[in-house]
């Protein structure tokens, strides 16, 4: 059980980062065929998720070396955080599954009921997890670590967003359009 | 609150209808109009647009419109708009063939923006070799980009800076997505009157429902980044015409048999289908169309 909770949280963090990768890419490329673009965006999110999760893990491991007993305190926080995150994550994954597999109306329903609103409340869910985790923390250090870890997770999407620009299609037909306008005028 | 909200995208660009050349737009006059209409946040947004000597920078405005349309396409993709359109066009085209309309059958997308619908139909539509897809819009910048996108992916569709109702070869079927609410009163009738030359039309717009403005707000907050898109998306949902208004304008202006498709009868219906269509066809086309509609027929409202 001691190992399961951190691993579960790490998996959730990386999955969330992968979704963030998709989200920051969505609405930035107007091509019809862009599966490769989305795959690359998801990979980018996942890699950053792995990086931040590893960094947070290393930080916690280092802190645990200097503060005996911190790990068991953090497990209490992790359990509390999961009470908030697991239902959210489960519903999101179910929504994704339905969207990927069902027919048009049901897919739309999954978007309207789950995927859209859940995107909107994601920062609030992470914030709520941080508050609940810190509230349940047996000590102030564990509370601080919990809040910091949740803060890092919240920062992933803005980090992925930084420098992202819409993909404006390359040149080609400007001349033709100008000729058309000249002809019209 | 005023009864008729204004969309920023309708105000920041202007064209000479004859030449389609952009005309200068005064930032102060747009801001004043929005303020007079009680839309302070929209006015503040326009105030931030770059301008020289009070004339809005055309490049900046087109850039904002382009980004908004790219983001809007993402919503269309999420709500499978092209698939929904295709499901109606297939039986409609079959009905046209049955009634002996000579090919090529031209589908014209009115106000196509970045041409998502025609490009997507060209990519996945399998509408038939006898079908031509044409997207028309007055915005040069959007059409330039739409053409580049189509060229990049070698899609067989035409994108034109043109009035969709004044093409040399008139369209057989007129389609649009999210365009109808831009027209009010006589303009709405004129919009439909332009389609008398065709044989049928399918115009999708946001579902008229109490849920729509809330849903639109939520999705524009969750999915859009461009402030203009976020503003106009919500205003669009509030400006949507009731089904009755659309049907009576369509029927009155064209004389076609008209019905709504996917019109929500309750809140669940609005959640399942955030977009509904106004479908119209010449009287002689209606029966063959109903025959080919298949399961879609049950989603059709009463014909008028």
TrEMBL record, chain A:
It comes from the Bacteria. The chain crosses the membrane at residues 6-26, 47-68, 80-102, 109-135, 141-160. Keywords: Membrane, Transmembrane, Transmembrane helix. This is Uncharacterized protein.
UniProtKB/TrEMBL annotation, chain B:
The keyword Transferase applies. Coiled coil: none annotated. GO terms for molecular function: methyltransferase activity. Residues 107-193 form the Methyltransferase domain. Keywords: Methyltransferase, Transferase. One of its GO terms (biological process) is methylation. It comes from the Bacteria. InterPro entries: Methyltransf_25 (IPR041698), SAM-dependent_MTases_sf (IPR029063). This is Class I SAM-dependent methyltransferase. The lineage of its organism: Bacteria, Pseudomonadati, Myxococcota, Myxococcia, Myxococcales.
